[in-house]
Amino acid sequence: MQQPALPETGRQITYKADLSFRNKLNTDSETLNFCYQCGACTSVCPISKFISIYKPSTIMQLAKLGIRDMPHSNAFLFCSACELCTKGCPQGVKIHEVMESLKDAMAAAPDILKSIKFDTVLESLSESMPFPVTYSWICLRPTEKSALGTAVLDSFKRFLAQPMPDKINLAPDAKKAAVIGSGPAGLTLAWALIRSGIQVTVYETLEQPGGMLRTGIPEYRLPKYILDDEIDRIKALGVDLKVATRVDKDLFEEVVQNTDYIFIASGAYASRNLHVIGADLEGVIPAIELLQQYNTSGSAKVGKKVVVIGGGNVAMDAAGAALRSGAESVHLFCLEDRNDMPAHPWEIREMEDDGVSINPGWGPKVIQGDKNVMSVEFIKCKSVIDEDGNFNPVFDEKKTITAEADTVVVAIGQSPNLDFLNKYIETFRGKVVTDSYTQKTSFPGVYAGGDAALGTASLIEAILAGKTAAKTIIQGNGGVSKA
Fold it and tell me: What superfamily in CATH does domain 176-269+416-474 come from?
């Protein structure tokens, strides 16, 4: 894999510590000082496998010293906040929050991009993943209001202006692969396999490809022209993309009989149900349904008073979509307290700036109404996780509040819909069981990744799963068993 080149200096440079910057960072990220450079964060970081200058442990070390003007220190820009580094840290350092603090502190400095030769890194990413601009856009969140955003947009325009790749000529006896789902995991595998000479057909239930990149991420977070361009580049290679084609048990069995490799990347579109009285009233809708409406038509059907239940990134996106669809007020409630909300801190702040009321520490008790939703009664949540680390909310029955609502958006998680699978594919708790080192399932020649295997995966995890499965296949592993 081509690696991003480091800037040529021609002379020895001495980097000096910025004490005021270091002190501010320590104030913003209190756990930074617990880092003792064990390297666990880098070992579990999927981004470090794509970008040579991105090493969380090195970034942390330089940040503690107050050094911020060299490529390895400025590579924090590529953090996608997947939080795997934080989860893998034995000291409990909130590494993803440190990265976010670094972004906040240096967002107005376009020269950062020059120090890491951003165009070169973008070109290198295109050799290791099919979504270099999409990935970078989600990480950097560029805006024309900032100098850094303007510089990023210029780099993106230059990259997207490149001609489409030539179609790959496959051998008449080329192996065949089928991909179920056109999200980032499935399209990454398709992109990698066809470049290695394997014929690929992708099956997508919806009328447009992209999976959660299209239906789950609102336009204001990821412009769809970028996604369209990068998917067009995958199709230009010769990938056969069959949209509006739902894979049921019969088609799955047909695919098993007629292909050499299968990759299950069907996503997680089944919304988890809210088990409270009134959850079946008119006006209660899953967040995924709202986002699909918003992303396909530019607006979602919501009332004037919207209540969102959930504290993750999907809940934040749904709240933003509701506002942009005409809601006069949007109130978000979640079980977790503010510091433990699963959504990214920057996303919470953005929603507050947009006018969303964030109410942490409350769980729904009952949704009130006759036929249509009228209000939601919430009960105070004292704790979410028990001493054994299990999800086990404890409530204070004496503390309740009521929020008026004509629309209630439920954003408490999604799960894969695997009804098309036959019994020989092992699943556990609604997800396909895979070997994380190869993405193999229990059936020879069948692989799985992304949300179908993890339940909810970040963009970078989905891309990595597609690359891992492709590598396993390309290295010559056996195909689908026809027995």
Answer: FAD/NAD(P)-binding domain (3.50.50.60)
**Statement: the pTM of the whole predicted model exceeds 0.85:** yes
In the chain, domain spans: 19-160, 176-269+416-474, 272-414
**Residues whose CB falls within 8 Å of the CB of residue 349, separated by 6 or more in sequence, listed in order:** none
pLDDT at residue 13, as a whole number? 44
Assess whether pLDDT exceeds 50 at residue 7. no
What confidence tier does 9 reach under pLDDT thresholds 50, 70, 90?
very low
> Pairing state of beta strands 240-242 and 199-203?
parallel
Homologous superfamily, domain 272-414: FAD/NAD(P)-binding domain (3.50.50.60)
Q: Between residues 355 and 103, which one has the greater pLDDT?
A: 355
Query: Residue 267 carries which side chain, given as an amino acid letter?
Result: G
What DSSP element (H or E) covers 202?
strand 199-203
- Pairwise CA distance, residues 447 & 425, whole Å: 10
Q: For residue 401, give the 3-state DSSP assignment.
A: strand
Residue 308's nearest CA partner among 277, 338, 346, 274 is 274
Same fold, 176-269+416-474 and 272-414: yes
Question: What region does 431 belong to: left with phi over 0, alpha with psi -120 to 50, or beta?
Answer: beta
DSSP 8-state secondary structure symbol assigned to residue 277? B
What single-letter amino acid sits at 345? P
H or E segment to which residue 322 belongs: helix 313-324
How do residues 228-247 score in pLDDT, each as one tens digit? 999 999 999 999 999 999 99
Q: Which CATH architecture group holds 19-160?
A: Orthogonal Bundle (1.10)
Lowest average pLDDT, out of 27-31, 74-78, 142-146, goes to 27-31
Predicted confidence band of residue 254 (pLDDT cuts 50, 70, 90): very high
Closest to 209 measured CA to CA, from 250, 229, 181: 181
Burial pattern 440-467, b for ≥16 Cβ within 10 A else e, equals bbebebbbbbbbbbbebbbbbbbbbbbb
Section 44-69 average pLDDT: 84
Token digits of residue 167: 């179609």
Find tokens 């104030």 and name the residue.
27
